[in-house]
């Protein structure tokens, strides 16, 4: 059964990835907005924000990476919605294909596409002056955190794609996710924020993830932030996966 599922998922993931390679502009478009945000904040607004001795692009990059993922998963919801509307799920169900492999194919495609977008954004940040003395282990820890974050948001995107009534609705769920880093420590220290906003910024998921990635890049102790970040990512992933599977069974049952 497991071999059957893995084989079907591999075939369907290859199908989705071929669609991506035929529209590479999707990945580029996903990276354009985060790069534009970096350009705006680094060269226009960054001088007015006190981040201590760290250069502003170093301070900014972790939050921009999360925005990249949040904007990228919208395409997963969009592609899933189109597949449902085209009737391809019904056709696959009439074939000996593992049912969950259709969802996993979209999730793995999202992971690959988002990783490519993240690499583009990091390269743009390097061109703007980003530098890090982090070793291989720290970079792998950053990559692992981003993979977990991407998987959690992608399964949320699956829920949106299964529940949407229109193409616009399939992508609209990502707007709050893209906006969330702006009310965190991603762009400015939370100490500068008024009371209620500061409390929210310090206790929402993005801040602990941003602080973990920032400290890994800066070769600083991550403290308890990494455990909070992992709890948010893993908890969100498990919850979103469970809801997505239930929504899928209702939609295709």
Automatic annotation (TrEMBL):
Q: Which UniProt keywords apply?
A: Antibiotic resistance, Cell membrane, Membrane, Transmembrane, Transmembrane helix, Transport
Name the GO cellular-component terms: ATP-binding cassette (ABC) transporter complex
What are this entry's molecular-function GO terms? ABC-type transporter activity
Please report the name of this protein according to its UniProt entry. Transport permease protein
Membrane topology value: Multi-pass membrane protein
- Occurrences of domain ABC transmembrane type-2 (ranges): 25-251
> Carries keyword Ion transport?
no
Where does this one sit in the cell?
Cell membrane; Membrane
Q: Which domain of life is it from?
A: Bacteria
InterPro entries linked:
ABC2_TM, ABC2_TM_bact-type, ABC_2_transport, Nod_factor_ABC_transporter
Residue spans crossing the bilayer: 27-49, 61-82, 103-130, 136-158, 170-188, 226-248
- The organism is Arthrobacter agilis
Q: Which family does it belong to?
A: Belongs to the ABC-2 integral membrane protein family.
User: Which GO terms are recorded in the biological process aspect for this UniProt protein?
Assistant: response to antibiotic
